[in-house]
Write a structure and sequence with these properties.
mainly alpha; 2 domains; 61% helix; flat; Cbp6; ribosome binding
Length: 108
């Protein structure tokens, strides 16, 4: 293996150790996808982009306006979505069923 090929492989391996685990979908992890990618073709062009996404560089460069994240019709919408995503992996079977049923029935 050439030196030009081992450097991107080492970068990918360091990314695999630092990338956060997705608790919402534990059976489908980005680390597994990147590990499969190590054995295939062109790695070098994707390494800088992957590091950039891991550091949230695009979010810093293209920060959304505050009024975009708080729509006038429902100002807490995105906060509620984040709360649901954080709570979802820890729900019991009964809580998931109850949440599904309450989502089907809307009393207003």
């Amino acid at each position: 293996m050439s030196a030009a090929r081992t450097l991107p492989v080492k970068h990918f391996q360091s990314l695999l150790t630092r990338w956060p685990v997705d608790s919402l979908r534990p059976d489908c992890q980005l680390q597994n996808v990147l590990a499969k990618r190590l054995g295939t073709g062109k790695l070098a062009p994707t390494v800088p982009k992957t590091f950039k996404s891991q550091e949230n560089a695009d979010l810093v460069q293209f920060r959304p306006r505050p009024d975009l994240l708080e729509p006038k019709s429902n100002p807490t919408y995105y906060k509620d979505v984040l709360k649901e995503i954080e709570e979802a992996p820890h729900r019991t079977w009964w809580q998931r069923i109850a949440k599904r049923i309450t989502g089907m029935i809307r009393l207003q």
